[in-house]
């Protein structure tokens, strides 16, 4: 079984000498005895997308091509947690635990006891991050062990609820708009020993807006490749670069999209709909859960797995789930298979229906992520 996104920071912490941290990924064997570890997460850099990214001629990605050829670095396959979506994965990375424990259980979730849907990427301080996500992060653990832990992020991210949940305890070094991010990150890696974290979202944005395989996507991949090459060129001799992702993705054609708000049988009995197009959380009206489960199972047969909350939790989809987090999961959980997506045009901004690339589900295209390691 491949390792998990949850294993990355504990393994990096073990390399840096943090007590009780375990190098379950065997990073020490790959990067040796280093004093600084830079972990860079490339949003949307799915493991199964690497060959397609590396082979393009108009927008080449020479570093990734060299990695796939076995000439540079070391490549391993990991998995992200479920749902395979950015907020969930970032907090799984930061805490080292599965979503059922940290509570950031999807792109959007229902706030229990209300009809409110919380969009994690837009969240600031309501609910309070420390109570919504109670698990200590590895940035906090590193700091408590006397090891420096810094996060180099776009300044717009600093202070958000998601940032606090995923990176709480890090020393933040925000990057202003217009600043050369690769240069800033390279400077921070060189500045002091410890863990340095970086993040880039350009590839994921291109996949959503224009589709995987589009010229926009390949151009974004070339920029990511250039970012990583710059970091490697500037890497101090006592440092290692670890590159990973939060999820992969796939394109959803128009004929594979189902609008649940346009189908009366799918609307009936629904109080709140959350999640995202590849994974839907259906919070039902009192007494309606069984009927909703039956209707969605019938209409989406062969296109989605439809579980009750109890069955989804028992199947281990979220890992062990804390009692206080259970209500954030829908009464019914719908996970698309194949290339299906479930739109909710009456509940979400119109931009959601215009997307081309999606993720969130359980297919390998969505859940397989790379672990790339480089040293000088």
UniProtKB/TrEMBL annotation:
Organism annotation: [Mycobacterium] zoologicum
Phylogenetic placement of the source organism: Bacteria, Bacillati, Actinomycetota, Actinomycetes, Mycobacteriales
UniProt cross-references to Gene3D superfamilies, sorted A to Z: Alkaline Phosphatase, subunit A (3.40.720.10)
Membrane-spanning intervals of the chain: none
UniProt protein name: Nucleotide pyrophosphatase/phosphodiesterase family protein
Domain of life: Bacteria
């Amino acid at each position: 079984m491949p390792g998990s996104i949850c294993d990355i920071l504990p393994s990096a912490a073990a390399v840096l000498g943090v007590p009780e941290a375990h190098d379950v990924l065997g990073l020490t064997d790959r990067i040796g005895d280093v004093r600084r570890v830079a972990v860079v997460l490339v949003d949307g850099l799915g493991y199964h997308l690497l060959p397609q990214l590396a082979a393009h001629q108009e927008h080449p990605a020479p570093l990734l091509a060299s990695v796939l050829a076995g000439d540079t670095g070391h490549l391993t396959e990991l998995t992200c947690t479920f749902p395979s979506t950015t907020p969930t994965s970032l907090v799984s990375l930061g805490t080292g635990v599965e979503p059922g424990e940290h509570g950031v259980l999807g792109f959007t979730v229902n706030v229990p006891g209300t009809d409110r849907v919380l969009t994690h990427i837009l969240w600031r301080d309501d609910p309070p991050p420390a109570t919504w996500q109670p698990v200590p992060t590895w940035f906090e653990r590193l700091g408590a062990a006397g090891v420096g832990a810094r996060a180099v992020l776009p300044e717009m991210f600093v202070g958000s609820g998601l940032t606090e949940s995923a990176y709480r305890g890090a020393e933040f070094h925000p990057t202003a708009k217009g600043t050369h991010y690769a240069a800033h990150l390279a400077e921070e890696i060189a500045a002091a020993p410890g863990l340095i974290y970086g993040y880039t979202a350009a590839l994921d944005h291109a996949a959503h807006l224009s589709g995987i395989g589009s010229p926009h996507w390949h151009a974004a991949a070339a920029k990511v490749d250039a970012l990583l090459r710059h970091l490697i060129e500037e890497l101090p001799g006592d440092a290692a670069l670890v590159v990973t992702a939060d999820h992969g993705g796939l394109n959803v054609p128009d004929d594979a999209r189902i609008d649940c708000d346009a189908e009366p049988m799918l609307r009936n009995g629904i109080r709140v709909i959350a999640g995202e197009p590849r994974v839907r959380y259906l919070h039902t009206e009192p007494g309606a859960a069984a009927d909703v489960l039956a209707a969605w199972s019938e209409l989406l047969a062969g296109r989605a797995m439809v579980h009750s909350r109890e069955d989804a939790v028992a199947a281990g989809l979220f890992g062990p789930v804390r009692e206080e987090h259970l209500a954030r999961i829908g009464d019914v959980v719908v996970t698309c298979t194949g290339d299906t997506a479930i739109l909710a045009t009456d509940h979400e901004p119109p931009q959601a229906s215009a997307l081309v690339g999606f993720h969130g589900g359980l297919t390998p295209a969505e859940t397989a992520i790379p672990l790339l390691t480089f040293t000088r």
